[in-house]
Write a structure and sequence with these properties.
Elements: H1 2-8, H2 25-34, H3 40-53, H4 57-61, H5 65-72, H6 79-94, H7 103-106, H8 114-125, H9 134-143, H10 154-164, H11 170-183, H12 202-206, E1 223-233, E2 236-241, E3 252-253, E4 276-285, E5 290-299, E6 310-313, H13 324-336
Parallel strand pairs: 1-5
Antiparallel strand pairs: 1-2, 2-3, 2-6, 4-5
Helix pairs in contact: 2-3, 2-8, 8-11, 9-10, 9-11
The protein binds a DNA duplex (11 and 11 nucleotides) through helix 2, helix 3, helix 6, helix 8 and helix 9.
InterPro entries: A/G_AdeGlyc_MutY, DNA_glycosylase, Endonuclease-III-like_CS2, Endouclease-III_FeS-bd_BS, HhH-GPD_domain, HhH_base_excis_C, HhH_motif, MIG/MutY
EC number: 3.2.2.31
Family: Belongs to the Nth/MutY family.
DNA sequence: GAGTCGTGGGT
DNA sequence: TACCCAAGACT
């Protein structure tokens, strides 16, 4: 694997060349958080903007919370951004501004779990650590043809990974396994002809490498419905801030009622007004449900009471840092020509 | 162990 | 198209 990696490693902004000195721990940490459940190509532009704005732990720890959330907008899983800020502040306050170099200490930092702790220890500090992410799970499940369905197979996969992890260059080994999983040992149509370890792969010898890792059938995503509100005042629109915990926590948003199985009502509007329903609806797929939102537009009369929020210039809505579901809805309101849009 | 938590790319 | 899934963590 290391020999293959020496010649085939992807060049990435947070990565050092194979066999060279470890990269900046801050950049390793940031990239690992951004890469959780997120593909490399999606992360790269966010990583570049982020490091230009906050190049180290000290600058990030001193950053404004709202600006951090806005910079993360569109990347998803927003708890990562909240924990990233907590993590940077913990590193400054409790570790002298430098990331600790052991897995156990790394695990105490918000946002760092078993995978990320092992990855940072190996990649940024050159320690031997058993790094198991989704790529490694797939490669190892195939290499050893592990028949146990996920997630029950996780302990066996970790044990098997331990047996093939080298004592030196564990970081390069981990990155080699992840590159292999991302480019060759892919979930569907693995390219075994280009695989450096195909000769020892039990799943390939069996003839159906795609069968691994074995997974149980998953259930269908339920439908949820709701209403989003577009309240305007001159050339501005009313935005709210969502509660810190839960779905899209801490993010700027359009006012919305709850998202539930039942059809929506207008009772959750941000203010009393002559709401006009648009002809179109906004749809968006989340991890565990599908959302269909009715769209209601109105002008504020300058009199009725408003819950906490802020007027935002419609022409500058791109800088509000709206999650994608709200950015999509905002586009529909503006295309409709709704009041002020 | 199971549910929650986004979004975009690939097929 | 509809579905799968990604360098997981947290509760």
């Amino acid at each position: 694997m290391l020999a293959w990696y020496d010649g085939a490693a992807r060049v990435l902004p947070w990565r050092a060349p194979p066999g060279s000195a470890p990269p900046d721990p801050y950049r390793v940490w940031l990239s690992e958080i951004m890469l959780q459940q997120t593909q490399v190509a999606t992360v790269i532009p966010y990583f570049e903007r982020w490091t230009a704005r906050w190049p180290d732990f000290a600058s990030l720890a001193a950053a404004d919370d709202a600006e951090v959330m806005s910079m993360w907008a569109g990347l998803g899983y927003y708890a990562r951004a909240r924990n990233l800020l907590k993590g940077a502040r913990a590193v400054v306050a409790e570790h002298g501004g430098r990331l600790p170099d052991t897995e156990a200490a790394l695990l105490t930092i918000p946002g760092i779990g078993p995978y990320t702790a092992a990855a940072i220890a190996a990649i940024a500090f050159g320690r031997r650590a058993v790094v198991v992410d989704g790529n490694v799970e797939r490669v190892v499940a195939r290499l050893f043809a592990i028949p146990t369905p996920m997630p029950a197979a996780k302990p066996a996969i970790r044990a098997a990974t331990d047996t093939i992890t080298p004592d030196t260059r564990a970081g390069d080994f981990a990155q080699a396994m992840m590159d292999l999983g991302a480019r060759i040992c892919t979930p569907r149509s693995p390219k075994c002809l280009f695989c450096p370890i195909a000769a020892g792969c039990t799943a390939r010898i069996e003839g159906e490498p795609e069968r691994y890792p074995v997974k149980a059938a998953k259930k269908a995503r339920p439908l949820r419905q709701g209403t989003m509100f577009w309240l305007t005042n001159a050339n501005r629109v009313w935005l709210v801030r969502r509660p810190d915990k839960g779905l899209l926590g801490g993010m700027r948003a359009l006012p919305t009622g709850p998202w539930e199985a039942e059809p929506p009502v207008l009772a959750d509007a941000p203010t009393a007004a002559n709401w006009r329903m648009l002809d179109t609806v906004a749809t968006h797929g989340f991890t565990h449900f599908e959302l269909v939102c009715a769209l209601a537009a109105a002008r504020w009369d300058g009199q009725t009471a408003l819950a906490p929020g802020e007027w935002w210039p419609i022409a500058d809505l791109e800088s509000a840092g709206l999650p994608t579901v709200f950015a999509k809805a905002a586009r529909l309101f503006r295309e409709d020509g709704a009041c002020g849009g």
